[in-house]
């Protein structure tokens, strides 16, 4: 249930004030005991230093539970939360956009067994904006402080206003969870949500991306394999330096500099230094390493140059279907329309009805006999949840059958 604008109240301070930061073994043991003695779900959040540090480790972990209060744990001195994990093993943990924080929490030994994701719940309920602040305001009628989500949380000591912001992020998270659970139940979507939460917890960690250098921003401007080789060498050199210095790669060398060097292919250190994107202080600091990387890319034998693209394990890009396989293109257009209609009917984002990649794969390689059961088997194999299969298999099968009959007529 949405709250009217006139009922919105600013939430400026945590109810019990800003708690002290837990940063000693003794304070951590006390936090574990008090959280274990609390009641109900535990609100959990983590602050990272994205854009400042290498990787996605947590630099602050916030927890709140009824009867326990709020705890701000510094995971730099308290890097092992396995005792907390054991104490809360049977407790539901409430996170907002859980998949963002679960990996860094797992690094500390904190792994939820039961989950409620308030962002995903909001998506399933059809809320158009599902950021935490917006959801708290829309559902509960409170506005949260903004402005520190992109801060450098690796800084020490953490300023009081940052700690206030961090504590407020879990202040109403359980209340939000309770309100959304009621809405999900009334909408007949609670079982859908529980399946989605379980799927998040059962998803294995992502495998390292093949050729991560190919995600360099602006790489689409490059036309030659030689230029791609320079990107690969510069990206690899940057990643090594960033890891060694524990800095975000973009702070060591911007993507724009990598792409400019790959376009210009400078032949001397002076040529490289003359490029506009190589004039920053941090960039100049490692100038010899950048030039060596460019030289490696420029002098590789042709047989060692990277290909323009790496074949994937799925269908070709959809924009090529009309020319390559018109029947598949028609199937894709039709199935997308079916999913969009179901999304409108049930007030869901289309990607929560079925992942776009699932729709593409089904359209590219449908079952020969497109019955609801056969389509359901394909969807399940592609990772669709039971509720998604139940919702979509029959209308998708009917659409595929109509197209097949039209083709055979």
UniProtKB/TrEMBL annotation:
Domain HRDC intervals: 224-304
Ranges where the record places region Disordered: 301-321
Listed InterPro entries: 3'-5'_exonuclease_dom (IPR002562), Exo_C (IPR041605), HRDC-like_sf (IPR010997), HRDC_dom (IPR002121), HRDC_dom_sf (IPR044876), RNase_D-like (IPR051086), RNaseH-like_sf (IPR012337), RNaseH_sf (IPR036397)
CDD domains: RNaseD_exo
SUPFAM superfamilies: HRDC-like (SSF47819), Ribonuclease H-like (SSF53098)
Protein name as annotated: Ribonuclease D
